[in-house]
Give the backbone structure.
Amino acid sequence: MVENIKQQLIKAQKNEITEYYVYNKLADSMNDENNKKVLRKIASDEKSHHDFWQTKTNQKVNPNQFKIWRYYLISRLLGLTFGIKLMEKGEENAQINYNEIAKTIPEAAQISAAEHEHEQELIQMINEQKLKYVGSIVLGLNDALVELTGALAGFTLALQNSKLIAMTGLITGLAASFSMAASEYLATKSEGGEKEPLKASIYTGVAYVLVVTFLILPFLLLSNLYLSLGLTLIVAVLVIFFFTFYTSVAQDLPFKKRFLEMAAISLSVAVLTFGIGYLIRIFFGIEI
């Protein structure tokens, strides 16, 4: 066997046995019997693929312990579906050329394609509450980012006092979070789907409040208004980046376009209201 092909087989074998341990470890931590069953099935498939590659390499490999703990903790903290799909995307980028391997081992390409298709089917069977309510979380995040970045930009020039800006932003944000939570409750109730109206409203409200907290924090910690506003805008972009990345992985959505669109909207609103705040301050002749 060509040495390059053998090295790729060993890499594939190591991936399979590592993921076998990840899926089994996650299954051990599950209370939901359906999720436990699905994870055990994927683990079994990973083990059989590892055993197949081992017959070709005639070599024993050890799992990557760092990867096992990394994806186990990510899945427990950020959600089972997100952790699994992130791991699978990492496998896709592992630079294992199955078409090249297939020249030596014809079954390789077929095994790779079948594995990916079967895993996706099984992952779709996982029941996870977070994903049911991701629309409610997105609603709270998007509204808070657009409304509060704009409001804080306007307050910065209109009020000229960091603590006053933080206080006004907090009051505005909390009032808006209650309004958004109530609206989501009524909207979910009228839709009559699988989501529980109360849970949907809580997810929306909590997401809104968390974003509000992050955005006003610079004004509470710093006295320089414009530095605070700059940090707030950076925080807004980071929140957009991380949550867009999360949803793009968990729901198989395009990342770049969604991230740029949301960031452009939030920053454009901030710039616009910054100018409005300046004009209002000049028009009313307010000095604070």
